[in-house]
Give the backbone structure.
Amino acid sequence: MSMENFDQEDLKMLTLFYKTMNETENKEEYIEMNTKFHHLLSSKCESPRLLGFIETISRGFSQDTPQIIRGQIEKSDKEHCNIINAVLNNEPEKAASYLGEHINRTGKELVVLMQNDNLNI
């Protein structure tokens, strides 16, 4: 994650998306803000390989995990808090680590659900 690519407007929008996710009780709005949050984060990435990976995992279920994985919103809120704080504190290594952990945990839980045929869709 290239922190120098974030301007003040980007940081303001990331914060707005995060706050809206935390305050809404509407799953559709949560999913919309979650999508925007992740899109803005990935839009500042300069690694074509990582961007390709992000694009691949963004297809399919990834944006709908709040509806599919039990407790996903609560888990994601904590992870998003870590990510946004690291970004706002200009700590790119921490931000990238937290984002990687978030994606990894979500992916593992989604795979388990798919293997057990327990998708709530």
